[in-house]
Amino acid sequence: MSVPTLPRRPARAVFAVLAAVAVLVPAAIHLSPGGGPGVRSAAAPPAPGAVAPASSGAWVGTWATAPSAPEPRSWDGYAGMSIRNVVHTSIGGTGVRIHLSNLYGARPLAFTHVSVAVAATDGGPAAVPGTLRRLTFAARTSVTVPAGRTTVSDPVPLTVPAAADLLVSTYSPAPSGPVTYHPHARQTSYLARGEHTLDHRGTAYTEQSPSWRYLAAVDVRSEEAQGAVAVLGDSITDGVTSTPGANHRWPDFLAARLRDEPGAPRYGVLNAGISGNRVLTDGNPYRRSNPSGLSRFERDVLARAGVRAVVIELGINDILRDPRLATGPEPLLAGLRQLTRQAHARGLRVTGGTLTPFQGYRRHRPGLEELRQRVNREIRAGTVFDAVVDFDRALRDPARPLRLLPAYDSGDHLHPSDAGYRAMAHALDLDVLAGRAAAAL
C-alpha cells in the first residue's frame, strides 16, 4: 500500500508526570536469533471465563513495533550519534526494560550508552526531571548485539505512566550498518551528534526523524495488567494515514478502551503492523525487508512479553499483489489458518478481522473484490479464526458497501481516517478478547 510522507512537527503541550522509585533485581542479558526476542514465552492463558491478573508483578509489553527493513543508505549506521526514539505506552508499571534489535544488521552492533526516561512534552525530546535512567545489559553499560539478533536490557525501577511518551536513547560509537528500523512510525523521534543519552533537556536533539531505529519493544513490571494483546497487521494496523503524533492508530484507540471501560481486560496493546505486509510473501526478499506474516508471527507477536490474546488484520495486500490468488483465495485462507494454528500451539486464541472495503482505490478491480468477498465469507463462517471482528461492516458505507464510509476514508479509499481507526477499535468485543464470552461467528 502506498503511504504518505510524515511531516515534521514541533513538540506539543507539556504534561506533568512524577517519577517514583521501586526496587527491582536486574536480570541477565538475553540474546536471541531473528526468530524471536530473548525473553521467555508467556504461559498459556487461562481458559475462557477465567482470565487471572499477573501475580505479584509480571513483565508485560506496553509498546512494540515490528522491525521491517534495513534502512536505505545506512551502511555505516549512525556512528557517533545519539538516537532518541519516542514511543507511547499503553499500560503503566513500576519498572521498565527494553528490547533492541539488530535483525537486519550485517555485522555486530555496539551500544556504549542507552537510557530510558518519561518524556516531559507530548512528543518532544526532553525528559521529566528525575526520570532519566541509564540502562545496563548483564550489569554492563555497553552491549554488542550480533547481526540478526535481539538483546533485552536489565530492568530499572521507574514509574511508567499509561498513555505517556517514553524516550529511549541509544549511542553507537562505531559504524555498524545497515540499521534495523521501522519507517512509518507516525511519531517524531530525534537525533543528536555526539553522546547525549543522559541529556534530560534534549537540547542537543535538533534533528527530527519519522522512523524508529533499533528499538523493538518496551516491557513494564505491572501488578495490575492481566497481559497484552498483540496485533499482526499491515499499513491499516501501522496507522499510516493517522494524524502524526496523535496516537490515533486503531490499536491506540483499542488501548484507550482497555484502560478506560469498566470491566475491560487490563491488557497492554502491542502493534506489529507493517505497511505493505502480506500473509504469504515477503515484500522484498532481495533486501530481506517486510517479512511475511507467516515468517514473523513468532518473533513479532507470539514471543512478546505477557501476550494473552492475538488479533490479525492482514490479507488485503495478498489480494492486491499475489498472483497465486488469481485462481482463488485458498492459498491466503490456508496461510491465515496456519497463523491460527501457530497461536493455538502457544495456548492463544485468535480474533481475526474481515478485509476492509477498497472500491475507489486505484488498484481496485472486480476480480479482486470477488476475492475479498470470498475471504470474508470464510472468516465470518468461523473456518479461519477463533473469533471475528468485522472490520468490513464497521467501516463500509451502507449506501455503497464496497466503499469506505466517507467519514472513515482517509482520502485514498483504502486506508481509514482517524475516525475510521476509532471505529475499528470499537468493533472489537472486549469480552471475547478477554476470553469471557463465546465468539460470535
From TrEMBL:
<keyword id="KW-0378">Hydrolase</keyword>
<dbReference type="GO" id="GO:0016787">
    <property type="term" value="F:hydrolase activity"/>
</dbReference>
<feature type="domain" description="SGNH hydrolase-type esterase">
    <location>
        <begin position="231"/>
        <end position="423"/>
    </location>
</feature>
<dbReference type="InterPro" id="IPR053140">
    <property type="entry name" value="GDSL_Rv0518-like"/>
</dbReference>
<dbReference type="InterPro" id="IPR036514">
    <property type="entry name" value="SGNH_hydro_sf"/>
</dbReference>
<dbReference type="Pfam" id="PF13472">
    <property type="entry name" value="Lipase_GDSL_2"/>
</dbReference>
<protein>
    <submittedName>
        <fullName>SGNH/GDSL hydrolase family protein</fullName>
    </submittedName>
</protein>
<dbReference type="InterPro" id="IPR013830">
    <property type="entry name" value="SGNH_hydro"/>
</dbReference>
